[in-house]
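Good morning,

Attaching, inline, the backbone tokens for the sequence recovery test we're adding to the shared suite. The designed sequence is right after.
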């Protein structure tokens, strides 16, 4: 089989969440951060016939990049990556060596706010956090507006960047660590619960992230 650029792009993005991954048979890839604060899943163009584990995902992707449009032949223990007269036999990791996401779906009780977050706004607000060296990305409801507030929740007198993204009749403040916002570029529908969990969904649910909040 061949693996599409879309699937390789998903895998590359997921390396920022966890350097290892266990891919189950089918067309959905999931990963979870070592701290269990980020869970990501993506429905991909390819479908894998069997499950496999990769301990060093960056190394695997770098190996794939040695070939132009390679073919992949999977066995229970390894995958052969080949193109023409050259090939690599890449050995899989034991599943016990890799942290795996939970099987059951995540409930999102008591949703406080729901809004649309465009790729442009996400990029601008995270860029502001990098420029100003701010650790928190908060969704704040005040004065009838939903505002993305980039700042430091432990330093109320510090620098702040704000971007209004919608309207609300509620008051709330739900904060994230900037380091947990490791998204693929897309427009997202965002739902945040008061119970410390949020859901970012894009491409009609084909790309999803569950992120823990820091405060409410």
């Amino acid at each position: 089989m061949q693996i599409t650029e879309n699937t390789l792009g998903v895998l590359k993005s997921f390396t920022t969440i966890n350097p290892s991954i266990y891919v189950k048979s089918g067309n959905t890839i999931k990963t979870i951060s070592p701290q269990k604060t980020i869970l990501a899943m993506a429905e991909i163009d390819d479908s894998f016939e069997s499950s496999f584990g990769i301990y060093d995902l960056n190394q695997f992707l770098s190996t794939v990049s040695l070939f132009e449009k390679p073919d992949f032949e999977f066995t229970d223990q390894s995958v052969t990556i080949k193109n023409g007269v050259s090939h690599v036999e890449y050995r899989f990791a034991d599943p016990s060596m890799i942290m795996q996401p939970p099987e059951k779906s995540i409930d999102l009780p008591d949703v406080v706010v729901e809004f649309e977050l465009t790729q442009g706004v996400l990029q601008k607000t995270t860029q502001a956090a990098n420029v100003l060296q701010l650790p928190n990305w908060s969704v704040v409801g005040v004065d009838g507006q939903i505002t993305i507030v980039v700042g430091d929740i432990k330093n109320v007198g510090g620098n702040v960047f704000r971007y209004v993204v919608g309207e609300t009749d509620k008051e709330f403040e739900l904060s994230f660590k900037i380091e947990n916002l490791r998204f693929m570029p897309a427009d997202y529908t965002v739902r945040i619960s008061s119970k410390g969990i949020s859901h970012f969904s894009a491409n009609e649910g084909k790309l999803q992230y569950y992120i823990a909040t820091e405060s409410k």
